[in-house]
């Protein structure tokens, strides 16, 4: 199933759905049964007699999808960004329909997309590609919580993971410019297990807590708040540790005073080790 709907415009919706079966010399009674079943599933019953040229973009995509489903010998379906041309308010309906089809027919679906939300919505496993190679394969939760590539950490999540280039210190911790970052013992062990000098600390914005006064909490560091986005359901603050900055979403109103102290909610999830080129963690 391609990015742009591929249908036979001069045929009716019924004939489009029946075309693969008729090519296989399937008995007409079986054709009617399968077309009826697939049309009901895709909510195309009311347009079966319409010419495909008169359909909307989302209806045409459902016809394309139906042509793949109508054959019972199909073991896998490849979707190549099928929702790109669909209006945003209709995308969620088709996402739900794809999930329903997958659960009902138990067909393997390979879905190609640049939209992480689409991938996370109905994928059981996601393969993230970078420079033509798969850099990580796992569930949406695994990709979010345990990225093993800097691209995965930044690409999955909105906003993406903050990646801070750090240097090792003599006591087994790390330092970002003039800010010392204290690691847990497991993180220090992971850092010691790699000899790479290309070390980065990855911090998920969702796990950052902000206070105006210092607190006796492990992993806190002093920073300045220099920008707050317009208040919405989820505002965004920018914090600066030295000259650089990292962004985080805030559900509550962010204090505008500066400087402030920031501490990770869970250091175990904020610092991770990626062998050879990204920094320490579990």
Describe the protein's architecture and organization.
The structure is a single chain. Residues 243-248 and 250-282 have low confidence and may be disordered. This protein starts with 12 loop residues before the first helix and ends in a 12-residue tail after the last helix. The longest helix is centred in the middle third of the chain and has 18 residues, at 88-105. With 282 residues, it is an alpha+beta fold. The strands form four sheets. It has a five-stranded antiparallel β-sheet, with no helix packed on it. The chain has helices at residues 13-23, 28-41, 57-69, 88-105, 116-122, 140-145, 150-155, 185-192, 267-270; strands spanning 76-80, 108-112, 126-130, 133-138, 162-168, 174-176, 179-181, 199-203, 208-211, 221-228, 235-241, 244-250, 260-264. Helix content is 31%, strand content 25%. It has nine helices and 13 strands. It folds into two domains: 13-124, 3-Layer(aba) Sandwich (Rossmann fold), CATH 3.40.50; 157-270, no CATH class.
Summarize this structure briefly.
The protein has 282 residues and is α+β, with helices and mostly antiparallel strands. The chain has helices spanning 13-23, 28-41, 57-69, 88-105, 116-122, 140-145, 150-155, 185-192, 267-270; strands at residues 76-80, 108-112, 126-130, 133-138, 162-168, 174-176, 179-181, 199-203, 208-211, 221-228, 235-241, 244-250, 260-264.
